[in-house]
């Protein structure tokens, strides 16, 4: 029994190390540019098929990295939703989009790779849909989208969809560019993750409240 | 003389075909994922070093693709700037950011690759700075940024910088996701490039006019 537990513990450590290595390599080079073999080698696996053995296809591996962070994000967003209850302040609901990733990134410290990994994965022609669908499908994200929809009944469906896409794009790429700048030691518009969160909140509040021109 | 001209014409055609092939491959797979050798092969060059021979390094090749589109964008933006003169309507100045790329993409027809190429190039860890600097440095872009700065004197420098970055990120990724959806035949929030332009204009106007929270 002890032997089984030890082997399982080793297996879990190996899986964790492969996931961390893959996240870094994908963040640095893009999802399509990195092979399972390169990840196995960078993770110090003697067997070049280690990634395939532990995770299956590249889509499975990318989803496993997404799911490595999902519980932390889900927990933060669920707590925020419970706290705002049925708030009618749009800023509260937009904060449920913005703060979970910015606080998660702050908690990871620098260098983190998660923001750049998400930027690469959501720009990948093959895997972007899998990653976006997985993220949007979480219970707390569904509740946040429902809250935004309740507060914005005036927006036609296509404008709401468009502004949802824009919110995702802004959050993903602002965080990715900030994470890279912190890592490379280049200047950032805002000094801290908290300040970057405030900047995103201000901007997205303006974006969601902007008058719209119908183009039907 | 006629022979020289023909050889030059052939050389130009080869260069053009290599550029178009590289743009498509970078857009599909990411800049880091595609080697000069793969581009040479896909462009039907018997010599695997054709890309290096014609363009030098990958950074040179990426810049050559950017510069293939730059005159068309520059011409549209310069004409818009001349037409709005010293307008004090913020929407006019934001239109100078948005309309040149959306009209250019419309003129390319589908499938185009330019929007996805720019999204990939500006997400690439190595080449992103080269591409962003090249784009921002154009005379019409400098005049547009100066116009926005004149109209937004109330914004602290870091908020203006942050919102400039956000404008770029939104325009790049909205256009890239729309270009991909058109190519793949999947739904888009707006029916036409003109309508997508209007959606971006509305959203960016709200973003730039949003009240800001100082975090100094």
UniProtKB/TrEMBL annotation, chains A, B:
Keywords: DNA-binding, Transcription, Transcription regulation. Gene3D superfamilies: Tetracycline Repressor, domain 2. PANTHER family: HTH-TYPE TRANSCRIPTIONAL REGULATOR BETI, HTH-TYPE TRANSCRIPTIONAL REGULATOR RUTR. This is TetR family transcriptional regulator. It comes from Nannocystis radixulma. It holds the Pfam family TetR_N. The keyword Transcription regulation applies. Residues 18-65 form the HTH tetR-type domain. Coiled coil: none annotated. The keyword Ligase does not apply.
């Amino acid at each position: 029994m002890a032997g089984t537990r030890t082997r399982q513990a080793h297996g879990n450590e190996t899986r964790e190390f492969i996931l961390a290595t893959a996240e870094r390599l994908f963040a640095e080079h893009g999802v399509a540019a990195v092979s399972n073999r390169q990840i196995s080698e960078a993770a110090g696996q003697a067997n070049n098929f280690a990634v395939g053995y532990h995770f299956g296809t590249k889509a499975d591996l990318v989803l496993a990295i997404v799911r490595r962070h999902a519980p932390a994000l889900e927990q933060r967003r669920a707590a925020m939703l419970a706290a705002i209850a049925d708030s009618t302040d749009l800023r509260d609901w937009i904060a449920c989009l913005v703060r979970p990733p910015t606080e998660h990134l702050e908690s990871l410290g620098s260098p983190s790779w998660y923001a750049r990994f998400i930027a690469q994965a959501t720009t990948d022609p093959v895997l972007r849909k899998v990653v976006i669908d997985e993220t949007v499908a979480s219970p707390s994200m569904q509740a946040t989208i429902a809250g935004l929809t309740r507060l914005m009944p005036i927006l036609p469906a296509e404008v709401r969809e468009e502004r949802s896409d824009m919110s995702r794009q802004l959050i993903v790429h602002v965080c990715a560019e900030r994470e890279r700048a912190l890592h490379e030691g280049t200047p950032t518009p805002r000094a801290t993750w908290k300040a970057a969160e405030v900047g995103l909140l201000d901007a997205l509040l303006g974006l969601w409240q902007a008058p719209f021109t119908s183009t039907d």
